[in-house]
Amino acid sequence: MIPIVKVSFPPKEVLMPVLEAVLYSGQVAEGQYVYDFEEKFAKHFNMPNVLGMSSGTAALHAALVLAGVGAGDEVISTPMTAEPTNTSILYCGAKVVWADVDPLSGNIDPESVRVNITSKTKAIVAVHYAGYPVRLAELRAIADEYGIALIEDCAHALGATYAGKGIGAIGDFGLFSFQAIKHMTTIDGGVLSIADEKHITAAKKFRWFGMLKGVPRTEVDIQSIGYKYNMSNVTGAIGLVQLDHINSILDKHKSNGHYYDQQFSSIAGIDFARCDPQAGPSYWLYTLLSDHSTDIEKALNEAGVAASKLHKPNNLHTIFSDSKKPLPGLDAFYKRLLHIPCGWWVSDEERERIVDIIKRG
Ligand SMILES: Cc1ncc(COP(=O)(O)O)c(C=O)c1O
């Protein structure tokens, strides 16, 4: 079976010596490997301020708190995502307010965001779903007009671009996930990017019990709640090695994605996610759209190609029942959605075979 997602590690002979060095260094908790990883990640993806975190969820929780989200506030978000995008809003005691999604892309619809803003709205969470950037210029303008924070959930979108900039740099905060099946994994781990450096000290305290590293534990005075959300040296070391290999991984996702876009633009009944012309997707998953998605899924599965939807619309979970409302854009998108294999492991021959099966279907 050609899978939809696959774990990627650099060759053993490259990774293992680094892993062995950190494991027996005597310093496996947060330390220099983490700080080196932060610097290398920031440089590689052209981010101003980057902090290593234990997960993407931890980074998102931090972003929400730093954006001032607290009990009783509202956060406008998308139901078309993995659950941590929205459960982390509940960590803050805030209410999730759904914006509908654009049925052409599966991403949050800026017009729907605008009509859902109230005096309680503190932030917008925009997910670059499957690696396709949201309509960032419009969302940035809305956030600025109403004085609310824009948080980019880039968990699916490492390497994507918008208006020539790396994804995650246009929002007030951005988060990346290095969980097992993402473009780049550190087993678990994440990054928080911060546009305004005034938040860096608070973010560092938030990721480590409310304290700053380097201050003697007998002298520290905790003044705000912090969590055990920091990155370990072991994670940082894996990340440092992964960054040396990430370009070829991203290039292959993009090359396969562009190939499918080109092929499917001339097949009747088959469409694909369309995003803002300023956006450069990184195709973590390939989003095919068709009224016949169930039949195509069956034909691909029978031919040994994994194809399916990957997430349940979050509004369907009981925990979000207070946020219930009609979401016609989401319903239209979800019905037509089918993810097909597109990542670094899909060879040129395999992608041709996948297109052939779809053409024949
Ligand atoms: C869109 C999205 N946001 C946030 C997360 C949370 O990331 P993590 O698993 O690293 O906590 C994930 C993935 O798991 C995700 O897919």
TrEMBL record:
SUPFAM superfamilies cross-referenced by the UniProt entry: PLP-dependent transferases
Gene3D superfamilies membership: Aspartate Aminotransferase, domain 1, Type I PLP-dependent aspartate aminotransferase-like (Major domain)
Keyword entries, A-Z: Aminotransferase, Pyridoxal phosphate, Transferase
MF terms in GO: pyridoxal phosphate binding; transaminase activity
Cross-referenced InterPro entries: DegT/StrS_aminotransferase, PyrdxlP-dep_Trfase, PyrdxlP-dep_Trfase_major, PyrdxlP-dep_Trfase_small
Family label: Belongs to the DegT/DnrJ/EryC1 family.
Designated name of the protein: DegT/DnrJ/EryC1/StrS family aminotransferase
Organism: Undibacterium oligocarboniphilum
